[in-house]
Amino acid sequence: AVVSTQSTGVIVLSAIDNEQKVYYEGVIKEKIALKQIPSFCEYIVVNDPIRDTKVGCGGSTMEVLEVLEEHYGFEKMEKIRVLLLHAGGYSKRLPNHSTSGKIFATVPFTLYPSSHSAACTMLE
């Protein structure tokens, strides 16, 4: 689930299920290739465990910590910086973002003032 591997920092996005995880990973790869997000840090997408009930942010955080420990080991985890973005969930109040989640919703801002500049998403 690691998208880039060149740093001591990692950005973790939580996803509600495997389908959303695969979508997030694809968008992240595309944004790295287009130089819309930094490529000097790792991006890891972790989906919530499959259960009969929702796990919420607390359960998602525990799952992320377990995945990070498996990936890095406890010793290295103490030395890396982690930004955890709880991005999982199917947006009910914004149905046009139900599949992609709000993390990839566009905001009325561009990073580079040019007519060809793509609108930013909340991830940028």
Give a written overview of the molecule.
- The protein has 124 residues and is α/β, with parallel strands linked by helices.
- It is 30% helix and 15% strand.
- It contains 3 helices and 3 strands.
- The protein has a 3-stranded parallel beta sheet, sandwiched between helices.
- Helix 1 (18-33) links the parallel strand 1 (9-15) and strand 2 (42-47).
- The longest helix has 17 residues, at 56-72.
- It starts with 8 loop residues before the first strand and ends in a 38-residue tail after the last strand.
How do you describe this structure in short?
The chain is an alpha/beta fold and 124 residues long.
Labels describing this entry:
124 residues, alpha/beta, 3 strands, 3-stranded parallel β-sheet
Overall 3D form: flat
Strand order of the largest sheet: 2-1-3
Number of strands: 3
Number of helical elements: 3
Oligomeric state of the chains present here: single chain
The computed structural class is alpha/beta
The ordered H/E elements are: EHEHHE
Distance between the ends: 20 Å
How much of the sequence is in beta strands? Answer: 15-25%
**Largest sheet at a glance?**
3 strands, parallel
What are the low-pLDDT stretches, counting only 5+ consecutive residues below 50? none
Could you tell me the radius of gyration in angstroms? 15 Å
Whole-number mean pLDDT = 78
